[in-house]
Amino acid sequence: MPPTPIRWVRHLPSAVVLICGLLLGLLVGGSVASVLIAVITAATLQLLTARWGVWPWLCAVAAIPAVLSPLIIVGGPEPLRVGVLVFCAAVALLVLAWRASRVLAPAGATLLVIVAALSAIMPRSATEGLGTVVPWFLVLGALMAAAAALGVGRARGSGMQMLCGLTLLVPLVAYVGEAISYGTGQWGEHLAVALWPVAGSLGATALLRGRRGRATDRRQIDEHDAAASTSFRGRYGDQVLAPVTVVIAAYNEASGLGAVLDELPATVAGLAVDVLVIDDGSSDGTAEAVQAHPRPLLVAPGVNRGQGAALRLGYRIAREHGAQFIITTDADGQYDPADLEVVLAPILDGSADFVTGSRRLGGQETRDRVRRLGVHVFAWTVSVLTGHWATDTSFGLRAMRAGITADITLNQPQYQSSELLIGVLSHGFRVREVPGRMRVRATGASKKGGNVFYGSRYARVVLGTWWREGCPSPVADRALALASRSRPDLPRGSRA
Ligand SMILES: Nc1nc2c(ncn2[C@@H]2O[C@H](COP(=O)(O)OP(=O)(O)OP(=O)(O)O)[C@@H](O)[C@H]2O)c(=O)[nH]1
Ligand SMILES: [Mg+2]
Question: What is the pTM of this model?
């Protein structure tokens, strides 16, 4: 199923704010023109913020003062003119952001400041303004924008510094210009009410998002990986793997692994399939079970480190030995081999780089309510944080182009599935979900611990990866902030 729901769902908060503002404005008797200008202004500001990768809900919240401005701010004789002024500033900022470049940005900035100053000293009749009331959210917005403009946190060096400074400065310049000319600064206040919440949302985005954390620089190979690669070469030579390579991490799975291997098809979508099993120090004869089976190739690091470390090694070996597509599945028989073709299909037809199955789109046998709830909660969390609509973030059957595993950072030794997913999203790869079926474990025991332990570790990985990856944007494909900042991180792998 294509990730369509998010496309309109993510615009829902903005639409609600705009429609409510429109209705409210008309209900309380605002003039149609002033209400329309306010709504269009708010929509423009939302476009501006969305363009720079602000969370959709924050875009909507930040636009509320603009949509309400004719009602709450002006209430006097000049709502239309103030609305037009705020609207012009918003459009100018939007155009500037759209075309942001080293030449245009400073030129546009200068122009904007001149326009704001001129509009502030234009002759006008007295208006009733906001008076001396400066709501706390304006101060907060202004402070965040100021911090971002000064390059605090992840804002340093980002294209958003200039924009944050501008949205902060335009109302200030208008206020000062007006105060010097007339002794009051009401227009500046009106501008501040509309623009500073937007400045704050941009500032918060700039402070948090964009630069990847230092942990993304961690080496992706250690001495155990190197030794395992060498011994794999010793055992199998420079064997070229089939285009589709199934990578299975197995730890103490001797009882069920044989059945899993028996079930795996020899070809998927007409492509030959090889199987790599990574067994790191099982004590129950898993390695012997692998070697006794005619299909799989064994990777044996010797030291037990966890499923994440095992898979990372498996990806490396698959890549280095010529696999084009990697599919992962588990050794405990929870995934249906018939779904291999389903996860690979979107990659083969060129519509995705990474495809994961989803038990919520397919089906699951477990009656464990906590597990079921956990799948919902984490899917929702990842969706909100990344803007990619996910229904299942821990489905073990997934397919990917082999090359992308070289681009992303995989530091998690055990709870790796959300690290992989968020990492893939943060690099802008196309991710899709397809229906998948999940059975209960046929034999053996879970390696992930009880629900509370599993859940808390998993939550830590979700949040930690999201932070480390520079808080990937909900609109990663369109957000200038992230796009311009992620480029230096790319050379490590083989993004196609
Ligand atoms: N090589 C290796 N594989 C592991 C390790 N821990 C887990 N695995 C494998 O990873 C796969 C998934 O592990 P499970 O314990 O089933 O975890 P899960 O499927 O996320 O959770 P459950 O729903 O409890 O089964 C299985 O094939 C395990 O054998 C490990 O330390 N090393
Ligand atoms: Mg399992």
Answer: 0.75
Distance from the CA of 261 to the center of ligand 1, in angstroms?
16
Q: How far apart are CA 44 and CA 96, in angstroms?
A: 12
The C-alpha atoms of residue 268 and residue 245 are separated, in whole angstroms, by 10
Q: 358 pLDDT exceeds 90? A: yes
- CB of 233 closer than 6 angstroms to any ligand 1 atom: no
Asked whether 280 lines ligand 1 (CB < 6 A), one says yes
- Ligand 1 site, residue 279, Cβ cutoff 6 A: yes
Fill in the DSSP letter of residue 76.
S
pLDDT in tens, 8-55: 556 666 777 777 777 766 666 667 777 777 788 888 888 888 878 787
CA angle 37, 143, 108 (to 5 degrees): 55
- Of 442, 448, 447, residue with least CA distance to 334: 442
What is the residue type of 254?
A: A
Question: In CATH terms, is domain 218-462 a member of 3.90.550.10?
Answer: yes
Q: Is ligand 1 within 6 A of the CB of residue 396?
A: yes
Q: What is the tally of helices (H) and strands (E) in the chain?
A: 19, 8
Measure 368 CA to ligand 2 centroid, in angstroms: 13
| Distance from residue 402's CA to the centre of ligand 1 (Å) | 21
CA of 305 to the centre of ligand 1 (A): 11
295 DSSP 8-state letter? S
Q: Is the confidence at residue 2, as pLDDT, over 50?
A: no
Q: What is the pLDDT of residues 390-428, one digit of tens each?
A: 999 999 999 999 999 999 999 999 999 999 999 999 888
Q: Give 399's strand partners.
A: 327, 355
Query: Helices marked H in 276-416 — which ranges?
Result: 286-292, 307-320, 339-348, 369-386, 404-407
Mean pLDDT of 109-135: 53
What is the number of the ligand 1 atom nearest to the C-alpha of 311?
Answer: 1
- Report domain extents, the chain: 11-211, 218-462
Rounded to 5°, the CA angle 432-338-334 comes to: 85
Rounded CA gap, 374 and 389, in Å?
A: 16
